[in-house]
Design a protein that fits this description.
The chain is of the alpha+beta class and about 120 residues long. The chain contains two helices and nine strands; from the N terminus they run E-H-E-E-E-E-H-E-E-E-E. The strands form two sheets. Strands 4-5-2-3-9-8 form a six-stranded mixed sheet. A three-stranded mixed sheet has the order 1-6-7. Strand 4 (about 50-55) and strand 5 (about 60-65) form a beta hairpin.
Length: about 120
């Protein structure tokens, strides 16, 4: 399961409204890299691929491929603004550590499951 808090859902809707296809889905994922081993990916995607899981979060379709879901199951996506601007924040209960920017993380030993 993936969770969006109200500010994140509001910002995603705002961004969707600015796209050519406002019905594009939010795709969350994980890729190798970043200063803590793995980094989050976030983008809009019009296609659902085989092996994707689709969640309805506050009326927003969130798509996660099964490999990424092993790392971000139960993740909460937040959005906040400060003096430096706005940005999404990832709250991942599966992460052992996060880098200072919050976009990169490492996993707890043995915590990757087959979701």
């Amino acid at each position: 399961m993936i969770h969006l808090n109200k500010p994140a859902a509001s910002e995603i809707r705002r961004l969707q409204g600015r796209r050519k296809n406002p019905n594009a889905k939010l795709r969350l994922g994980v890729q190798p890299g970043g200063c803590a081993d793995l980094s989050y990916t976030i983008e809009f995607d019009e296609a659902i691929k085989p092996g994707d899981r689709v969640y309805d979060c506050s009326g927003i379709q969130v798509v996660v491929n099964i490999q990424s879901l092993n790392y971000i199951n139960d993740l909460t996506l937040d959005y906040s603004e400060d003096l430096m601007g706005g940005g999404f924040r990832f709250h991942n209960p599966n992460a052992a550590a996060c880098c200072g920017c919050g976009n990169s993380f490492s996993m707890k030993e043995g915590s990757v499951t087959n979701a």
